[in-house]
Amino acid sequence: MTNARHDWGISAEIGRYRDARGQQLPAAKRRKLHRLRRWDRQARFEGKAEQNLAHGLSEVRRIVGALDLPESICTQACALYRTAANEDLIRGRSIEAMAAASVYAACRCSGLPRTTDEVGEVSTVSRERVSNAYSVLNHELNLPAVPMAPVQYVPRFASDLDLSREVRQRALELAREASEVGLGNGCRPTGVAAACIYEAAREADENITQTSLAELASVSAMTLREQWKKLQSMLEHEGESGLEVHG
């Protein structure tokens, strides 16, 4: 039994070319199996609603595979999509958008750092439509979404950029300090995480461009610069406070 299939995974699986012993089937037997598969497909769906459910769950599995997400996320996303279908939330909306939103919602509820930009890139719909569909799911189903913090994005971004361990540790330290002082309030956490990585790389004299980092974080270079300036102001204030206490 699995949420990932419209029939809970209890349908038949009919082979094509070989028998259970691995031997090649004769042409007559292959033709017979072809007819059986056709009849099985025709009998598998009781109506249009089941066909749409099967299509939506298939899209969820495809997106999860494209993002290389764990099986637990696939199961949770399929359960969310099935619930949305049962609640009639998909009527009048794009199946593909709701499938992508279900994957993003499963990531949010599990505290897995993925952005709507990343989900939108492997989906057949735009990021805006994924975001809108997620808003519907979040509002109608009262999802227990976990607020994402900059510190959650730092390890993945640093790994993608192949930065040193020292830079990763410093970026994590900066991200925690930024969250404590509310630097990322009202801002995209990916932008704050990118700014922390950029500052940590500069301190360690590791070469990294704002453009490449902004592209990885799915933010504009201007957003990255603004967050970096705020981060520098925070560090300057801490330095001044330290001098005052020492004096």
Topology of helices and strands:
Elements: H1 27-44, H2 48-66, H3 71-86, H4 95-110, H5 116-122, H6 127-141, H7 150-160, H8 165-180, H9 189-203, H10 210-217, H11 221-246
Helix pairs in contact: 2-3, 2-4, 3-4, 4-6, 5-6, 7-8, 7-9, 8-9, 9-10, 9-11, 10-11
Outline the structure in words.
Helix content is 68%, strand content 0%. It is mostly helical and 247 residues long. It is elongated, with a radius of gyration of 24 Å.
Short description:
The chain has helices at about 25-45, 50-65, 70-85, 95-110, 115-120, 125-140, 150-160, 165-180, 190-205, 210-215, 220-245.
Largest sheet: none
Average pLDDT works out at 84
Structural class: mainly alpha
Q: Order of SSEs, N→C?
A: HHHHHHHHHHH
Beta-strand residue percentage:
under 5%
Cα-atom radius of gyration:
24 Å
The end-to-end distance, rounded to whole angstroms, is 68 Å
Outline the low-pLDDT stretches.
Answer: none
Estimated helix fraction: 55-70%
Counted beta strands: 0
